[in-house]
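Just wondering, can you check both lines?
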Amino acid sequence: RFHGEGYQEGYEEGSGLGMIEGRQYGTLHGAKIGSEIGCYQGFAFAWRCLLRGCATEKDSKKMKALESLIGMIQKFPYDDPTYDRLHEDLDRIRAKFRQLCSLLNVQPDFKISVEGSGLSF
């Protein structure tokens, strides 16, 4: 009898704590992904403005890659954490970003983090 009651109490308490811990982990992980995607989007928008008006064939290839990255970011399912190909799509965005950095001759060595940039004013 006591064994069953103890088990039930422990199960209920563990379930509650598991939900809290899972929610905290999900919030942190979601913030990291959102920050990373936002960084890629800002990078792409800035370069689109810089390259607008250039008409060379090389710049055309850069613009095509930029528009592809922006399209992938806009189609990314921000509001559906149960989307089964979320990590695959995120990997494709990362690969397209690296390709774009190569085309633009930019080193993608900056850090993307939720903690902030460490700048102070």
Remarks:
- The chain has a mean pLDDT of 84.
